[in-house]
Each structure stands twice: as structure tokens, then as C-alpha cells.
Amino acid sequence: MNSELLKDRKKLMTLMKNSDPFFEEFGGLDDKAFSQGAISKKHKELTMVSISIVQKCEECIIYHLGECLNHNATREEILDAVKIGMMSSGSTSYPYGRLAFSFLHDNKIL
Amino acid sequence: MNSELLKDRKKLMTLMKNSDPFFEEFGGLDDKAFSQGAISKKHKELTMVSISIVQKCEECIIYHLGECLNHNATREEILDAVKIGMMSSGSTSYPYGRLAFSFLHDNKIL
Amino acid sequence: MNSELLKDRKKLMTLMKNSDPFFEEFGGLDDKAFSQGAISKKHKELTMVSISIVQKCEECIIYHLGECLNHNATREEILDAVKIGMMSSGSTSYPYGRLAFSFLHDNKIL
Amino acid sequence: MNSELLKDRKKLMTLMKNSDPFFEEFGGLDDKAFSQGAISKKHKELTMVSISIVQKCEECIIYHLGECLNHNATREEILDAVKIGMMSSGSTSYPYGRLAFSFLHDNKIL
Amino acid sequence: MNSELLKDRKKLMTLMKNSDPFFEEFGGLDDKAFSQGAISKKHKELTMVSISIVQKCEECIIYHLGECLNHNATREEILDAVKIGMMSSGSTSYPYGRLAFSFLHDNKIL
Amino acid sequence: MNSELLKDRKKLMTLMKNSDPFFEEFGGLDDKAFSQGAISKKHKELTMVSISIVQKCEECIIYHLGECLNHNATREEILDAVKIGMMSSGSTSYPYGRLAFSFLHDNKIL
Q1: What structural domains does chain E harbor?
Q2: How far is E95 from chain D (nearest CA, A)?
Q3: Distance from CA of C77 to the nearest CA of F (A)
Q4: Which of the residues in chain B have pLDDT under 70?
Q5: pLDDT at D5
Q6: What is the reported pTM?
Q7: Range C16-19, long-range pairs (CB < 8 A, 24+ positions)
Q8: Helix (H, G, I), strand (E, B), or coil: what is residue D35?
Q9: How far is C91 from chain E (nearest CA, A)?
């Protein structure tokens, strides 16, 4: 897959929503679960970094690390989230932990 | 991994089968499970699209979407299969749903 | 956990929906994904039997087998769905395949 | 398995640690990852509720919900953690969400 | 599920094989993969203990621990297999490690 | 992600260890679990090939196949480990089995 479209997340999300109202509702429910609530947006994004490592989803790790930075999570908080993800899912999550460190290094956080 | 061989699925399947009879039997049993039966081949391939999203297997998603088209699944049936996969496995399957949409767009289905 | 409530699925679903509107929307979206559509309700329930075996979810297997019977899936179709689930996820799904057979036997299908 | 020992988590943990120093170190590292840090103990336990639902681990869900209560997480924060877990892993996590609600009901939180 | 049949693994396996030849072939292929080969039966069963912990499958853990004992694996080899399983899949595998220790204790190995 | 750093596993491991002592301890515990013990280093690496296929982790598969070769596992032992991984996790592990065969071919083992 070298689809040009695949690189353009926004266009793809629009295509999904235009194809069937289910995907618009799915996106809306997702936004609701992860927006500011009793748990803050920042802490939800930190949780998603941990879950993305547990789920071994590369794209998710990069996306939620970016969101952590957008919501002013500190270097130490992000490292804590990576620890939680790696400790929860063990050494088969090592490549996903390394991906997180690589992103943090490229973004001058580490 | 930039192995030339990896791109050539057929040669790799032949290599597997020639290396040990186990892999030939595994392939034969797999063919049996997914061939036309009480459930039609088309519906089995639609089910495999859903399962591939649940399992977060990129190569499987592309392969089974191709098989859906080969067995005349409609656009609406394929969208239903993507919905089932995404609803079953939640928002961490988003990147895999987007991959499916990208494939469908590249193949002029969407 | 021997909660009386846990045995009463309906009361628990009501408690969820009353606790927070998110759970009502989640349930509604779930209903939408699995209702009759381009893929029939019967075929969606067969797919969910396969996915439940892949996901190793005991309660899900029992629930969706019951729904298959409610929507007139045949013995052969259900066996096909079990095959797809077990072939997709391998021999660590054996206990879940046996659970399906036990249910089918208790319900005089096998 | 109706082992008396299995019900006695503390004795089992002692047995593990006495059997091989690896298990003592594993436990120590686990304690380190989940103790108060840049992310608070309360938020780590909330994250573990979400991860336990994603991982479909019944014992983990009950344990971490109890820890959330021990660390003064509010009803609303716990519901947010359940939402994150269910939204991340979709409708096959329904039985695990219901387990959480059943625990919260039995403990007079809901 | 309190099916009498579920407790009787052998009868259930016979029911599966008699229902459809697929399940007989699946069982045969499974036997082939896990029988004595270049890797010994004992080491294959030790590997299956690790994989069963990684897969969070309770019935599989008990079954393969029993097979380890049947094939004269030592206490130390079994502890190594539990370590590999827990280290590979992290602290969410704790309940499954404890299940293994409980079984080993009940069988006077620990 | 085209990070130069990501390609340099050693530098990334150093960055992790220098960022927080947790990662050094995690690495040390991992080394302990997978070093020569009651189960030999060679058999532990073979087990890790099986687990890496079960976990669908591409980088892990390549790494542990390399370690198998470094510890003098035979062609037949490695094929047995691939069989165990594929049989345990079914046909959705096919792409990961093919990756293993591609690596073995590129390294003149097959």
C-alpha cells in the first residue's frame, strides 16, 4: 500500500464519514469518550499512549504522543505513560516503546 | 525487511510448502475452512475483512478486501463488514478501518 | 464475583444507560452495526460467533450462538462459523470451540 | 480449578517470590511503574481500569477498581475510565464493562 | 454454562470430530505441530505454557502444565517457562502466572 | 516514521536507559528471563520465535530468528518453532509465518 490517500488522514476521515453515517457517529462517540471530562484531556491522552503500546498500534502511538504534547503533558508524565504501557504488556512491547522514544527524540523532548 | 521474496506471495507459499509438509496441510485446512460451504465464499470473505480489522493485520485486510471484490461483494456489504470489525474492536482499530477505505478508494469502489 | 446483578444482563444494561448517556449511545451504535443491513442479521450473528472465538470471549460466544438460533441459522452454518473462528485464531482457541460445541449440544443442535 | 490457594492472593504472591528471585524483581518493577510519580497513583489506577477492560482481564478489572476507590477516584472519573476502555476496544469488551458496573453497584458507587 | 459435557473434554472432542471432518483434521494437524520433532515434546509443552500465559487462556495453562509434568519437565524448567510467559506479556499476565503457581502448589511441585 | 534513530536499536536502547532508571531495570529483568537457565538460551529463543508469531510482532520475529541462528538452532528446530507459532494462532498469523520464511531464505537457511 503506497496510497497517496493513506498519508492524508483528514481526507480519509472525510471519505469515511461521507460513505456511511455510521462512521460519523462512531467518530462522534470516540470524540466524546476522549474529550475533557471528569478525567482531563491531558490524562486521557496519556492513558491512550499506554493503551496504544499495549495494543501494539504504531500509528496510534505517534498520534497520541502528539496529542500529549498538544495538551502540555510533561516529559516525565509521558515517560510514566510509556512505562505503564510497557510494564502492562511486557517485553513484546519493546519495539513499540522504542518507537515512542524515537518520536520523543525527533521532537526534542528527549 | 526489503526482501524481494516477501513481495512475491506465491513464491513464498511454495517455499513454505516445500520446506515441510506441515505447511502444505495447514494451507489445505485453511482453504477448506474458507471455501464455499453452508456459508457462501462471499460471506466468508466479508467475515474475514471484519476479523482482519479485529486482529489488526494490515496484509490480511488488503487480501480479503480483494477477495470480496473477486466474489462480487457489493460496496454496501463491504462497508457493513468494516463497520462490524470497527465496532467489535473499537477506536484502536481506526487506522485499520482507514486502510480499508484507502484500498476501496484506490480501487474506485468509494 | 458472585454479584446477583451480574447474572441479570438486562438490569445491568439499564444501570449502564442510566449512569451516563455515553453508554446509551454506545449501545445504540452497536445495535446499528449489527442490525439487518446489506449483510443480513443472520450473517452478522454468524460473523460474531467467529469473532467471539477469535477474541476468546466466553460470554460473547454463548450470546451470539443464541442469536444465531433466534435468526434461524442452520446447524451447518453455525459449524462453518465455528470453523472460521478456530482456523483464524488457531489451537489456543480450542477451549472456546469446545464451549460452542457444548452449547450446541445442550441446545439439541448437535 | 477450585484451589483454596488461588483465592488467597497474598499467599500466592509470597509463594511466587519464594520460588525464584525473578518474581520478586518482577513484582518490584511492577510496583515502581504503578506507584505515585509524574502521573499520580490515582490516575495510574484509572488508566489500569481502562487497560484491564482492553485486555479483557476480569481479575484485573476488579483489582484496579478497588484500587481506584482506595485512592479516592470519584464515581465520574471511574465511569470515564470505563468509557475509555470500552471505546478503545469496542463491543467485544461489553461483558467486561458490565463486570465493572456490577462491581460498582455492589460497592454502592452506582 | 454449567454443562456437564463441558467438564468432559474427551466426549466433547469426539462430538467435534463426529460433527464435521474439519475438526478431525484440525486436531490431527495440531497433534502434528506439538508432537516430538526437532524440538522435543517436553520443550514444546514448556513453550505452550509460555504461550498460554501470553494468550491469557486459563484452560490452556492448566492443560499444558499437566503435559509438562507428564513429559518429565523439572520444577526449574516449568518456572522458566512461566517467567518467559510473564516477561513477554507483562503485568496484565499476573493472574495467569498466579494460576500456574496455584496448580504447581496443588500438585506438590512448589 | 522515518526516524534515523529508529534504525539504530542500540542508540535507542541507550536513550531509554538514560532517560529513566525504570527502563534499565526493565531491560535487566528481560535479560534475566531470557538468559541461559533451566531452559537453554537456544530453546528460549526458539520459544520467542513462536511467541513473536502469536503476538504478530514483525520486529520481534526478525530479532529472535537472528538470535536462534546466533545460538546454533538448526533449520529443523526453527521450522518447528514457526509451526508452533502458526498452529497456536491460526491463519491470521500467515503473513508473520511468511515473514519468517522470507528471513530464512534471505539468510540462506531455506
Answers
A1: 8-36 (no CATH), 38-110 (1.20.1290.10)
A2: 7
A3: 20
A4: 1-3
A5: 73
A6: 0.95
A7: C16/D97, C16/D98, C16/D101, C19/D79, C19/D101, C19/D110
A8: coil
A9: 7
Which residues in D lie closer than 8 A to residue F26 (C-beta atoms)? 29
Q: In this model, does residue F65 exceed pLDDT 70?
A: yes
Q: Do A26 and C29 touch (CB under 8 A)?
A: yes
Over the stretch A31-69, which tens digit does the pLDDT of each residue have? 999 999 999 999 999 999 999 999 999 999 999 999 999
| Percent residues over pLDDT 70 in chain F | 97
The whole-angstrom separation of Cα F47 and Cα D39 is: 35
Which of C11, C15, C16, C29 is most worth mutating to test chain D (most D CB atoms within 10 A of its CB)? C16
Record: contact E58-D22, CB cut-off 8 A: no
CB A73 within 8 A of CB A100: no
- Which residue is closest to C55 within chain F, CA to CA? F89
Query: Does residue F23 have a pLDDT over 90?
Result: yes
The DSSP symbol for A46 reads H
Instruction: Answer yes or no: is the ipTM higher than 0.85.
Output: yes
CA distance E39 to A43: 47
**Contact status of D34 with chain A (Cβ, < 8 Å):** yes
Interface contacts (D, E; CB < 8 Å): 55
Tell me the C-alpha distance between D36 and D45, whole Å. Answer: 10
